[in-house]
Amino acid sequence: MKTLLRNNEQIVKKGVANLQKGFETVGGSLILTNQRLVFEPHKINVQRGPIEIEIHSIQAVAKVWTKFLNLIPLIPNSLEVHTRAGQKFRFVLFGRDSWKREIESRR
Predict the structure, then answer these.
(1) Which CATH number fits domain 11-106: 3.10.50.40, 3.20.20.70, 2.30.29.30, 3.40.50.300?
(2) Which of 3, 24, 30, 67 is the most exposed place for a label (fewest CB within 10 A)?
């Protein structure tokens, strides 16, 4: 994990994930701590900045389909995180039920 942990912050879950950004898919790691959800892209991606979502800012977590070209549903293996500020982040990952439970239990 490249992101520095804060005081009293602990990693709860970590795994490989892709972030769907429109037509682009960014590969990387998804890390859930007791304070935030962090996506760290791999170095080979064009978009390299991490995304940090504070746990208290998460409004909802929904199981969704991975879409080809952001239009055609392919596989039901994605998780969409909605923030109170109206942002949506869609992560393609393994074990989305487990991720959903863990995130929801921290809110």
Answers:
(1) 2.30.29.30
(2) 24
